[in-house]
Amino acid sequence: MALSFMEGNEALARGAIAAGCNFFAGYPITPATTIFTSMLKMLPPIGGICVQGEDEISSMGYCLGAAMAGSKVLTATSGPGMSLYSEQISFAIGSEIPLVIADVQRLGPSTGSATRGADSDIQFLRWGNTGGLPVIVLVPKDAEDCYLLTVHAFNYAEEFRCPVFIASNKEIGMTRESFDLDGVELPPLVERKMFTGEDYLPFQAEEAMAPPFLPIGGKTLVRQTSSTHGPDGYITNSPEVIAATQKRLERKIVAAEERITLFEENRKEDADTLIICYGVTARAVADASAMLEQAGRIVSTLTLKSLWPVPEKLLRKKAASCRRVVVIEMNQGQYVGEIQKVLLDKIIEFYGQMDGALITPAKIMEVVAND
Amino acid sequence: MTSFLNENRPPVFCPGCTHQNITKGLDRALLQIGFAADKTVIVSDIGCSGLFDTFFNVHAFHGLHGRALTYASGLKLANPGLNIIVTMGDGGLGIGGAHLLASCRRNLDLTLLILNNFNFGMTGGQYSVTTPGDAVVGSGFLNQAEIPIDICAIAESAGASWVGRCSGNGADLSDQILAAMQHKGFSVLETLGLCTGRYTKKNKLTTKILEQMLTELPARNGLVEKNVRPEYGDLYRKLAAEKTSFPKPLSIAQKFILENAEPQEVLILGSAGMRIVTAGDIVCFAGMSAGMNVSMKNDYNITVLRGQSVSEILISPNKIGYAGVKNPSVVLALSDEGVHRRIGIFKDLAASALVVKEKNVGIPETRAEVYEVDFKEYKVSKPDWALASLGVLAARGQLFTRPMLEGAIKARFNEKRSLKALEIVGKMIRA
């Protein structure tokens, strides 16, 4: 067997190619730049398009235009770029434009530290749109996940016609590591459902579903708009029509919570403590739990690979038999509140660190031991 | 077909608004050029110009303020067969200035109609980038402290290959739009118009005055000879077609078996320009050639030619978790600034650990074995110190054997660079 060696960003780009991505637009920013440079090497030989926008706003604009022409689209940035993406993200959510957005997080706020990692944007990804509609956020823990989750992200984007975020981290994106690329089992590809009937209304959809798609430039005329619209894609003021659309945009994501739930666990019988984590921190948690076990302290671990929508059913199920839940985050506690909202009857302890350094296994052991 | 106008959605502009006339002018030009409706897109953004997409029986894309050109570019790149007309007001022009400059520089085949009516009509007649300093506007005195821009001059200097200016109420309007659409490349047509709802209520501006203004402004007659060049999409596709080789993932097959392999942590402490990351790659490749899992975390400054360069490498028969180095078994101490970056690590090194230290580099006291090398003595130049250190490790059987190291070097470099690198590590191994 030959192991492959690459950083998380290259793995993410390879995942996009495996998912059939054929358009990338982005603006250079550490630590996400190598997704752009990887796509620039990979897309032209397979007939895809890769461009550098004049800024992050335009990069998103190119992506939205290309997605509406029928392309499968990826863009990548980090915190400061996410800020500029925001207006176009709201557009993509409200007007159901599928695309995948990789956020290789760095230490914020603002310019922050370009080469220091943190899970800075977990709440910003969820709430960085006007309208407050739900989004899908997947979170890798290593290069292999970057590859695999990007395929899932494209599948969700296509099915739900929405932006799907990959919340990577400098410590994954720019860390090179070995893994068995050929051995990764990818999910079957999902393509957006095309409209086949007559009299196309671009936003006419079934309950809790995305509308069937037709591209701009096809035989049937298509309207796309960032304004509040009815099924026909024209502005509407009708409270009934508006309410129905808002509800559908919410329901299509929320109702699919269980299907969007991705996780990994190391479940131990009789463990009274469950450590919940996500992202690069999961790797230190795995080391810590192995060392704790050697020392005679058994803990279960749950690594979330999808953060939004909150996997409520999973959290309840996995925490049911535990007395105590410990949440570890590479920020000051952006997600623990979501877990608290779901696990109301549990003791929930939290350790967060946001100083540019990885949380060490020793620190996690200390937190768990401090019962 | 007699009209592209959507009978179900007639224009809704204020009486006397020039936009109404431009709607008709665009319709006439579309009929004349004979575009297929299903191959034509109107892209608009916010403001009264943003209503245009609703009036025509073509594809429509209506987006955010000032961003119309970005959507249009994405559509055109993804589907070069589309005919794309972008409408923007003077408001969108200001907020989307960067996109206008980029579009002029790029020369993608898009037609931009600028509907300049000298103010923000929808929000109450505030001043825009084209409002004269002496106009009475909804922004109080603020326009008096700035000057308006000549968008055609800007477009020309930014590289637009077709730039025109006309009155939105002029007899030649549809001919001008037609000429702009016929141009292959980025064309900018500035139309001057009357905002009867806001601007002309407080400012004297008539169709006649617009004509007068045109005679006073520098003439813009379409093709800009000095900017004529291949259309961006054509050029992009030509350049991209030359890139035929898809980059395969870098894979290293297992060739060696390590008896009793233990997890190893390696720290390389150096400076920019010492090819620390390259040396790290080679360490990783050597480990992978023995079937080990590896990870490498690098720490260097944004100014890549200055400052520390530190690599943290893990080599393990097990799956790697935490990717930081906690207690390395091997440290390469190659520069003071690199050492300084991880100064705390030395006091906790195990007695079994090895530090390979360049002669002049200072390190704190440590229990580990310190092996000092004077690379100059071996005529190894600074950019090769990290590589040469790997020869020292191979000679001592630390981390990897000589065949593992040589295999890793061959995997990392092309043939010519490999030979040179093998010579450097060979020199260290012999010594």
Q: Reading side by side through the largest sheet of chain B, how are the strands ordered?
A: 2-1-3-4-6-5-7
Tell me the Rg of chain B in angstroms: 33 Å
Number of strands of chain B: 14
Most strands sheet of chain B: 7 strands, mixed
Coarse shape of chain A: globular
Number of structural units classed as domains of chain B:
2
Number of helices of chain A: 13
CATH topology of the largest domain in chain B: Rossmann fold
Give the count of helical stretches of chain B: 14
Order of helices and strands of chain B: HEEHEHHEHEHEHHEHEEHEEEHEEHHH
Mean pLDDT of chain B: 96
Quick one: CATH class of the largest domain in chain B? Answer: Alpha Beta
Please give the alpha-carbon distance between the first and last residues of chain B. 87 Å
Shape descriptor of chain B:
elongated
From the 3D structure, determine the CATH topology of the largest domain in chain A: Rossmann fold
| Average pLDDT of chain A | 97
The number of E-state strands of chain A comes to 15
What does this structure look like?
The complex is a heterodimer of chains A (371) and B (431). Chain A is an alpha/beta fold and 371 residues long. Chain A contains 13 helices and 15 strands. In chain A, strand 14 (324-329), helix 12 and strand 15 (347-352) form a beta-alpha-beta unit. Chain A starts with a strand and ends with a helix. Chain B has two domains: 18-241, Thiamin diphosphate (ThDP)-binding fold, Pyr/PP domains (Rossmann fold), CATH 3.40.50.970; 264-430, Pyruvate-ferredoxin oxidoreductase, PFOR, domain III (Pyruvate-ferredoxin Oxidoreductase, domain 3, 3-Layer(aba) Sandwich), CATH 3.40.920. Chain B has 14 helices and 14 strands. Chain B has helices at residues 18-33, 68-78, 90-95, 97-106, 151-158, 173-182, 199-202, 207-216, 232-241, 276-288, 336-341, 385-395, 402-412, 415-430, and strands at residues 40-44, 59-62, 83-89, 111-116, 162-167, 187-192, 221-223, 251-253, 264-271, 293-300, 308-316, 330-333, 354-358, 369-373. Chains A and B meet through strand 1, helix 2, helix 3, helix 4 and strand 8 of A and strand 2, helix 2, helix 4, helix 9 and strand 8 of B.
